[in-house]
Structures are given as C-alpha cells and as structure tokens.
C-alpha cells in the first residue's frame, strides 16, 4: 500500500526532477501567481531591496516578475540615497529599478519625496527657513523631474501626521509650516504632470489619524492642487487586524474622490508593546522578544492565514475603490521586521517563507478568489 506520506514524497521528487530536467521551469512557477489572480481587481505590489533591484539572483527576479505587477523601492529613492549632498544627486539605483520595471512589466511607485526620516545628513546642519525651502523645492523638482514619465506614481509626502491627527513636528513643519504638504503636491504636479500623486502613512485607518488625513486631502484639493490617492501602509499585528477601521477608512477616503491603496502590507507575529511603524521607536530585547527563532508554530501560522484572508475579502469587496495592495517585502527573510523595533529577530509577516515557498497565508489569499 502506498501511504499519503509516500505520495507527498513522490510529488516532491517529481517537482524536483521537473525543475532539474526542464531548465525553463523556473522556481516558483508551480504555484498560482498573485498578479494574475487579482489582475481584474487591483495591482499587486512588493517592496524591492538593493539585491533584488540589482537582479543578483535570477531565480528571485523570475519569482518577483511572476508574482507582482507593481513595485516600490524599499530604500533607494529616499532622499538620503538620491540626494546625498546639497548639490549632488545619485540616481544609480533608482534608474536600475526603472529598468527592472520596464523589463518585467512592473509599474513603479516612487517612494518617497518628502519624509522626515532617512533625510541626507547635511539637513542637520541647516538652521534657516530659506535653506530648508531651497532644499525642499530643488529636491522635489529634481527627483520628480528625473523620473517624469518613468514612475507610475509618487508617495509625495510620507508620514506627516501624529497619532492624534495633528501634524508631526518634522523639520518641514518647523521651517515651512503646515502648508508644506500642499506645496509638495503642487511642485510634484509641476515636475511630473502625468504621474499619480499620493499621501502615504501608517495607522491612518485609525479614527483620529484618519480624520487628520482627511483634512490634509481636503486642504490640498481646496488649494486647487491634485492628489490622486491615499496610501494606508498596513503594518498590522496577527490576531489584531483592525478590519472595521480599515473598511470605514476605505469608504471615507473614497468619498473624497481619491483612490485607496494598501502600500506596505505586512502582519507582525512577534511581540511588540505598541502599534504602527514609527521608525524612530525602538524596544529593548529580553528573553521573550524572539519566540520563534526556527519556525512559526502552527497556531500562529493559521491565524496569520485567517487575517490575510479576511483582509483580501475586504479588499475584494471594495475593489472599485482599492487600486493596489503592496506587500512590504517579497519574503520573510527580506522583511524590515526582522530588525525593527529590535535587531536580529526572526519574523514571519509575509505570504512567502525565507525560501520563497508559499505559506498557508498565500493559499488563503488565493482562495478568496474561488
Ligand atoms: O545603508 C546602510 C548600510 O550602509 C549599512 O551597512 C546597514 C547596516 O545596518 O544599514 C543600512 O541602512 C539601513 C537601511 O534600511 C538600508 O538597508 C538602515 O540601517 C535601516 O534602518 C533602514 O531601514 C529601512 C527603514 O525604512 C528606515 O527608515 C527599512 O529597510 C525600510 O523597510 C523602512 O521602510 C519604511 C517606509 O519607507 C515608510 N514606512 C515605514 C517602513 C518601515 O519602517
């Protein structure tokens, strides 16, 4: 008698042999494609890191091209990278990403023009309003101008709000006042008239921050400036995904006449004593901080799958309003959550494991289309 276990082993052997004997069958082609599965619903994106943009691993490149039709640079278009000195710009990696997108039919979302974090170090030495304004204006004009007609969209302003909906005390607020957000959109529109322009933040599905975000959108529009969409980053926690707030946010943002996107989706499974993605926040490690160094327990794996399933059901319910869902990383090994808010942990927040193998959450997401 052939047991189930032997049949499973036989299946694995057949798959391995198929990959060995047919060189064109690249790794990962046996599983469904997210981009194809949701092609009539919304774009499916990922964040790409340096190694992926550089195409250092051909199997990884093929995997990305098969699963995703949109991509956001995880770091290489941030101001500290593209604008390292007052009068020096470096578009090397960003340009490679543009080539990557053209080659693999992947639309690029530029990330990000104005953000209080990952600023060039020279900003710290600037203490005058005039110089900050010059930096702000030149940066947007030059970077958005360089990528005119090359990126599909820009996260024009990122994370300008506090949790209570007031404006974050950034260097831009301090020197330029609250209008810097509208101004950034005006400059981006002038530099790249055909590019979609978005405001992006985390926790902006939460009622108070959402209210602040709605005010921002209204202010931009009232000034006669274009804003095409709001990005809800979507850095959530297993078993605690705020589905009601997310649905309410989709409806309220869409009612303003803007597109809604989930721009940095991941679901944290490790312990954390706060919510959100404020990169300045850190936690001190203790014995309980890294509970799953070798594997994720089945109970958590199942909860993760259930959370992703509920999210994608909601996205599909509102597919007339939701235009893109982007994961913050291709697989668990790439996730920033392995190093934040504590360095060197082992996290499991995405649909693919460290070898790009689909997790139960991948199949639960695909299953929402059945
Ligand atoms: O570039 C240096 C490199 O030279 C050095 O060797 C290495 C050693 O640690 O550090 C490198 O810099 C790291 C950088 O990523 C590039 O890899 C920084 O330490 C690290 O802090 C930085 O983290 C990024 C983080 O933004 C910083 O703000 C994450 O990769 C990136 O995923 C994360 O992305 C943000 C979004 O842009 C906005 N929303 C929140 C999201 C998650 O924090």
Automatic annotation (TrEMBL):
Residues 28-368 form the GH10 domain. Its EC number is 3.2.1.8. Belongs to the glycosyl hydrolase 10 (cellulase F) family. It comes from Spirosoma utsteinense. Pfam families: Glyco_hydro_10 (PF00331). This is Beta-xylanase. InterPro entries: GH, GH10, GH10_AS, GH10_dom. The active site is at residue 264. It is an enzyme of class 3 (hydrolase). The keyword Transmembrane helix does not apply. The keyword Hydrolase applies. PANTHER family: ENDO-1,4-BETA-XYLANASE A, GLYCOSYL HYDROLASE. Keywords: Carbohydrate metabolism, Glycosidase, Hydrolase, Polysaccharide degradation. It catalyses: Endohydrolysis of (1->4)-beta-D-xylosidic linkages in xylans. The lineage of its organism: Bacteria, Pseudomonadati, Bacteroidota, Cytophagia, Cytophagales.
């Amino acid at each position: 008698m052939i047991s189930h276990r032997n049949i499973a082993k036989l299946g694995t052997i057949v798959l391995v042999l198929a990959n060995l004997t047919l060189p064109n069958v690249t790794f990962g082609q046996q599983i469904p494609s997210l981009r194809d599965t949701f092609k009539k619903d919304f774009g499916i994106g990922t964040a790409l890191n340096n190694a992926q943009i550089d195409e250092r691993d051909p199997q990884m490149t093929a995997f990305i091209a098969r699963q995703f039709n949109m991509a956001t640079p995880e770091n290489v278009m941030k101001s500290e990278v593209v604008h390292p000195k007052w009068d020096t710009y470096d578009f090397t990696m960003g340009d490679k990403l543009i080539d990557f997108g053209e080659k693999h039919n992947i639309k690029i979302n530029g990330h990000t023009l104005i953000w209080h974090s990952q600023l060039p170090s020279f900003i710290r030495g600037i203490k005058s309003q005039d110089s900050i304004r010059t930096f702000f204006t030149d940066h947007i004009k030059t970077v958005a101008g360089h990528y005119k007609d090359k990126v599909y969209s820009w996260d024009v302003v990122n994370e300008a709000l506090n949790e209570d909906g007031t404006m974050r005390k950034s260097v831009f607020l301090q020197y330029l006042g609250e209008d810097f957000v509208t101004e950034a959109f005006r400059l981006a529109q002038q530099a790249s008239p055909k590019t979609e322009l978005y405001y992006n933040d985390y926790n902006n599905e939460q009622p108070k921050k959402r209210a602040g975000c709605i005010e921002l959108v209204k202010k931009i529009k009232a000034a006669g400036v274009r804003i095409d969409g709001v990005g809800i980053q979507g850095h959530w926690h297993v078993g605690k995904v705020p589905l009601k707030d997310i649905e309410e946010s989709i409806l309220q943002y869409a009612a303003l006449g803007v597109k809604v996107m989930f721009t940095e989706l991941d679901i944290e499974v490790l312990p954390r004593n706060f919510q959100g993605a404020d990169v300045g926040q850190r936690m001190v490690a203790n014995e309980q901080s890294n509970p799953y160094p070798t594997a994720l327990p089945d109970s958590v794996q199942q909860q993760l799958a259930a959370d992703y399933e509920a999210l994608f059901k909601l996205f599909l319910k509102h597919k007339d309003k939701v235009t893109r869902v982007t994961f913050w990383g291709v697989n668990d090994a790439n996730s920033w959550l392995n190093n934040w808010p504590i360095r060197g942990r082992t996290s499991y927040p995405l649909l693919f494991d460290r070898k790009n193998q689909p997790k139960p959450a991948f199949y639960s997401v695909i299953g929402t289309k059945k």
